[in-house]
Amino acid sequence: MAYAIARVAKLKKANMVGSGAHTSRFKFVPNADPNKNNIRFIDNFNCSENLEQIVLNKISQHEQKRKIRTDAVYCVEILLTASPEYFRPEDPTNGGYYEFDQLQSWLKASEKWLKEKYDDRIVRAELHLDEMTPHIHAYFVPLDEKGQLRCNHFFDGRQKMRAFQDSYYDAVEHLGLERGIKGSLASHQDIKDFYRIVEEGFGLEVNQFNTLAVKAKAADRERAIEKKLQMEATAKRLVRDNEALQQRIIELESANQQLRYQLNRTVDQLRDLPLDDVAWQLGLIHDIKGSNRWKGHGCIINIDDSKFYDFAPLKDFGGGGAIDLVMHVMKSNFKQAVVWLNDRFGEEGMNKATINYAQNLAQSIVEKEPAPEFIKPIPDVSQWDAVYNYLTTKRGLPPTLVNALYEQGIVYASEHQNAVFAMRSLEDVDISRRMQSAKNTSTPIVGAFLRGTRGENNSFMGYAIGTKRDSCWFYVGWGGLDNSSIQRIVLCKSPIDALSYLTLESQVVRKAAIPKTIYLALDSTRNLPFSLIKDIPEIVAAYDNDSAGNQLSRDIQKLLPQTTIKQPIANDWNQQLLELRRRQILKREAEQKNNIGLER
Question: Does a structural domain hold residue 45?
């Protein structure tokens, strides 16, 4: 015989945190099976706030006429379940097992009863399937019809508790469940006893000392012992891991000290020779009238750190660094100054002076000379037909795709009949939100990849002069809605391979079914735009089916763990596209022959 069971536990403010942690599994529950998921089927606030905050928010929706006592009942936890004979009639002692149809019927009836009886005052309800017998924890905020917090109005005394249990029995009677004996002591439970019932499995049956309960308890104990052994094994493994980590820390600290030593040596080597020491070796006399002034050889030199200035009549000269000072005082050239420094300060001192001299000279050049700018290969319309024929016929790309890219200025022909694939910065595309500018011709072209098309076996390919390979890429966008965010990036070795992959994918899946995607040509991790794409949910590394392609795919996957590796059946994606085209042509020819045969 199976019984319907309904219990309540009154929660004061201090009890709510512990109760919420228990039902949400924020704290360890020894008898709970971590491999099973519980189901929250009522959550009126639809948020991840803790139970206490949800209850307080519900109460605050109604102005309380009287101050709430510190020991008041803020919430009532309702436990609903049935005896094991209902959930697993064939084997009641098999703790943790239940028949799905039985569970669904009971859950549907219980949820309906909670909503009809308590409406939105049930702020949360969860179905627990990870313990011995399925059961529901529902949290009821005891607000009366006027919105006042009054737990006694609902659960004060035997009569109200009896009415509570009668009401639940009426809701589940059609499932074949029986009501417990009226007048029994099964009323309000203390918090401690309430959770003992839930965690230990006792008290869920009408007679908790029957044979079924004892067997179920034994099975539950075995599971707890097994979990204890697992925890001990885990603890031992963690101790070993911790010891290994401590040893690794010692090794890293030693390596760090060695690196600091090497760094200090490198920094010291990059420092110029002190100009005071150079002036002294040059035979200049330190002028007592000024702490930084040196005289001799017709010079009156004032030294300011790495700079100097000669105030002597007719001199009026300033410079910086040891080599400049030696050349000025000795009236020597660069080579003579280097030899003199090596003679007076040795190889190490000479190296310091020459390195500093070169750095100063380079910095001066950088400040004065403009950086070379990328010059876009000049489009040649007269060569476009040949390039178009190469891309569509020899490479098998769809004419509609090639024409669209040509109209956008992303692909065109140069005067040498090279196919020019425009490379653009990804920073001009708001890659975290929208990709409309991935198709926008206003995105500046700051680099170009060239592919030779003249002749039968033209193998020329490379980057246009001035292209900054780590700052721009060839890419196109496809899939998803126009205003949707980018969800995927496909990386291929070359522009033609990227367009081939797009073509193959578009023939298998409709555009709307593919998430917003960027197809991007990338031939090395050196120019991987890591900071721009690290938060994209899906990365596809689609490289050649060879050792080099495999290695590049694995390197990308190490940097971006969300990467999926895909390889073509052929050597590369363009060869796979050409093979597909060849099969499609053969199929059409065969169909045409069949049609001719039918006409005859």
Answer: yes
pLDDT (average), residues 419-439: 67
pLDDT tens per residue across span 536-567: 999 999 999 999 999 999 999 999 999 999 99
Which three-class secondary structure string do you get for 22-55? Answer: HHCCCCCCCCCCCCCCCEEEEECCCCCCCHHHHH
Q: Which of 333, 368, 403 represents a domain boundary (last residue)?
A: 368
Is residue 589 domain-resident? no
Tokens read off for 371: 């950086």
d(CA 184, CA 583): 80
CB 506 within 8 A of CB 490: no
Please tell me whether residues 323 and 436 are part of one structural domain: no
Question: Are residue 72 and residue 134 in the same domain, yes or no?
Answer: yes
434 with 526, same domain?
yes
Closest CA to 276 of 339, 345, 224: 345
The 10s digit of each residue's pLDDT in 178-208 is: 887 565 444 445 545 555 555 444 444 444 4
Same domain, 90 and 176: yes
Angle between helices 211-270 and 334-368 (to 10 degrees): 130
Q: Would you give the end-to-end CA distance of the chain in angstroms? A: 79
**Does residue 432 have a pLDDT over 50?**
no
In the predicted structure, residue 101 carries a pLDDT above the cut 60: yes
Q: How far apart are CA 535 and CA 520, in angstroms?
A: 16
pTM as predicted:
0.50
Cβ pair 34, 214 in contact under 8 A? no
292 domain-assigned: yes
- Give the DSSP H or E segment for 255: helix 211-270
Residue 436 sits in which domain range? 381-581
Cα(8)–Cα(194) distance, integer angstroms:
8
CB atoms within 10 A of CB 523: 16
Assigned domain for 444 exists: yes
482 and 413 fall within a common domain: yes
CATH number at residue 68: 3.30.930.30
Q: Is the pLDDT of residue 369 over 80?
A: yes
> Is residue 491 classed as helix, strand or coil in its secondary structure?
strand
CB-based contact 31:224 (threshold 8 Å): yes
CB 421 within 8 A of CB 442: no
Nearest to 13 by CA among 62, 65, 54: 54
DSSP states of 287-309 as a string?
PTT-TTEEEETTEEEEEETTEEE
- Domain shared by 68 and 203, yes or no: yes
DSSP state of 88: -
pLDDT exceeds 80 at position 116:
yes
The H-or-E segment that residue 317 falls in is strand 317-320
Assign 495 a pLDDT band (cuts: 50, 70, 90): very high
Q: Are residues 519 and 442 in the same domain?
A: yes
Same domain, 145 and 188: yes
Give me the number of domains the chain comprises: 4
What is the predicted pLDDT for the residue at 514? 86
Q: Do the beta carbons of residue 73 and residue 151 sit within 8 Å?
A: yes
